[in-house]
Fold these 2 entries.
Entry 1:
Amino acid sequence: MDIKQEISRRRTFAIISHPDAGKTTLTEKLLLYGRAIQSAGSVKGKQNDKHAVSDWMDIEKKRGISITSSVMQFDYDGYCINILDTPGHQDFSEDTYRTLTAADSVVMVIDAAKGIEPQTRKLFKVCAMRHIPIFTFINKMDREARDSFELLDELEKEFGIGTYPMNWPIGCGVNFKGVFDRTKQRILTFEDAHAGGSRIEAIECSLEDTEKLDSLIGEYSRRDLCDELELVEGAGYEFDLEKVRCGELSPVFFGSALNNFGVEPFLENFLKMTTEPLAHKSGDSMIEPTDERFSAFVFKIQANMNKAHRDRIAFMRICSGKFDRANEYFHVQGGKMIKLSRPQQMMAQDRAVIDTAYAGDIIGVFDPGIFAIGDTICEKGMKVQYEGIPTFAPEMFSIVEQIDSLKRKQFDKGITQIAQEGAIQMFFLPDSGMERVYVGVVGQLQLEVLESRMESEYGVKYNRIDTPLSLVRFAEGDIDFKKLNLMQQTKWVKDRLGHDLLLFTAEYEINWALDKNPGLILKEFSQMN
Ligand code: G4P
């Protein structure tokens, strides 16, 4: 296969959902179809000790949530599929946002009983902003569900995009009889426990064949189905692949991941509709994936993913060409040619060293501490620099103090590395060292992960003092920072690159600072990145 063929068979997407909607279960079933795993590793849960392949950190296991994002690759029906699993917990939205930058489309899993939940709302907005195609899987139809029309209406209203149900559910909960496949005009009947990868036989049956329909789903359900379908056809959106591909129309699939119901038709339809690897923006030009020169950007850095491999991995999305392990590549931000060592593809904890990879693929490379999120790596002579990945403003700040001066080095190393990964943000008091730093996060869970990782990976304990600070601004201007006139609660800090920042507890402090310090310019956090 030549490079173009290899690239054109790639499909790279992220799965997002609110925790517990069934993302892990669906991912697992997809992997089963791709024969990437042999049996459902059983979904993580309190009842058993097995964990889904996409989870790995201890703290996730304890809390039963996905924190870190992992990448999985498998072949299915001639396609080469890259799934980016995203952390579902709202505290980890920043990591998720970054992961979305590496995906060409998104699959959103929704719990049929709950509809859109806060986390999906946030993520969805990011996708809509970036015009990423969004495919919706409405899960848990085997349980009591909300009205299907209501769910679609909610999606449309909340996100301002159209929906197109690819199939239509016949009842729900104990009365769930299956779905009607609108494209192929056939019925898929639901029976419990399709789990384990068995195929579900579709039954060809036209809506006019009332006798057969009645025998399949009963007269009552048949009448409901016909009425509902009439409404869907009459009042719903028309199918338009172009609109799907620019994120304006979301194909919707109803099913039950746990029962493996509706997963295979979803996968087949999804693969046909989603796009090949897309072009990426570099300055004013777009770099096509089929450009034979290799280029990639780093979207995630992760240390110590597995205790057996104490290392730091930079994950990069290949944007163009073919990666060859034997070659050296140019690290744009570092200004140097480098060899990407131990390039690997990940399957959650398992990794395989690879020799080649293509545009659309995600590879992890060993990072000796030279990469930062958003960095570009490319073939020599290729003038390319991919757009940076925005850093989100932290909303909580804590002071972290060393308590054991003998472990100063470990403390410095641990907190610096974890900050470089983007798992927390770190700020310093001007003119003081690392013994007392401000840690900025989006949510409480990040602080818990920091504590647990500092202890287990670096053997360090520290004191943490939570503060009421919640707002951050970059501070500039022709002004002597040492003489700034600030309210007592306001703090002046610096980031790793030496930028000046002010931390505030409330909006009025910002106005106060501007009022009392003519010449001071305060900028929103994202403006600087
Ligand atoms: P997540 O990754 O989105 O957080 O969700 P996950 O797949 O872990 O699924 C959350 C729970 O929902 C799991 O239950 C899982 O078995 C269940 N589930 C997933 N898909 C379906 C479905 O189609 N139907 C039904 N009925 N359940 C589904 P758990 O963690 O084992 O138990 P519990 O804590 O929910 O009781």
Note: The pocket of guanosine-5',3'-tetraphosphate is lined by residues 17, 19-25, 43-45, 88, 139-140, 142-143, 256-259 (CB under 6 Å).
Entry 2:
Amino acid sequence: MPRTCIIKEDTADEGVCCRYNAGHRELHQITGIESGMTTAATLQDRFSRRIDYLRLSVTDRCDLRCSYCMPQGFSDYELPADWLTFDEIERVVAAFARMGTSRFRITGGEPLLRRNLSGLAARLSSLSGVEDLSLSTNATHLAQHAVALKAAGVTRLNISLDSLCAERLHQITRRDALDEILEGLLVAKASGFAPIKINMVVMADVNEDEVEDMAAFCFRHGFVLRLIETMPMGETGRNAAYVDLQPIRQRLQARFGLVDGIVGGGGPARYLVTPDGKSSIGFITPMSQHFCETCNRVRLSVDGTLYLCLGQENALPLRPMLRAGCCDEELDAAIRSAIELKPERHEFSEQPGKIIRIMSMTGG
Ligand code: SAM
Ligand code: SF4
């Protein structure tokens, strides 16, 4: 529900805006707009990067325990009372959308563990300004939800799958999950999702030798494979067996005769395509090839914290102001001021121990 800021003329300069503790002068300085006005301006940070993509985590829980992501036995979750409600998520998405952000991705933890996710997706996809709504999932529950998600306006899916070998996948995810994931993938394909991207985190002596098989599997089914370097997020990320993807890129290029290509999406992946142009493989290389200069995204965690970079602590908690009943202008102003805090780059290589948050806490 949009909320209007009611500002009395006589307090417009010095007063405190509504119930949220921000002076009007300060609010105007942050937003550059007069109260009561709306703005269609886009969100841009100090480094002239346009922020047109929000990833929103709807849960920090997960039914898997991927070795590079969640520690075994992990249960240090946010309390349900601290989760943003669907109404609150909708308000934040609407705020980003009116400031020019058009692409949104639902993620987690495992987002399909949140009850009535397709109900939320339907609400978000129908908001003015939301042009693209996608979902990242481990697919263990996808077979049951794919049709409803498609009907709710989710168009694109990213699915984590690190191995096609059941035993190996068990070793990585600490659960027997391959059959459910493959079933989810096939139901999603039959439901008309396109593109479906397969995210494979590549690790030394774990699944590094399987990238060719995974590529062949994806080519056969019309999926886009994306290979990902591990990031040192939390102890799990730091302990994951990092592999530089550059030699693997060369290996795949030689094996499949791949050539440089561009695949839409505006994300960090650099793509190679097959000579017939029908299939592609993306390489997400936060460690071996920084892509911070083109970063276009921020992240909202399940507790309503807006994280500005995966590899830095800069963040703004939005939940207190949402629950204090802030108006839309105050919310927009807070988001704009947060975007100002977006750091230039991560320092995963220089300070690998810096980020203790694991990926599922931030929203991957
Ligand atoms: N559960 C869903 C899934 O697995 O797709 C969505 C959330 S998951 C945190 C999002 C992505 O983060 C996955 O593709 C996963 O492989 C990636 N990820 C998690 N921890 C990572 C790490 N330390 N380094 C690189 N990628 C990581
Ligand atoms: Fe769960 Fe996704 Fe993290 Fe794996 S990567 S533990 S599926 S949140």
Note: Residues 4-40 have pLDDT under 50 and may be disordered.
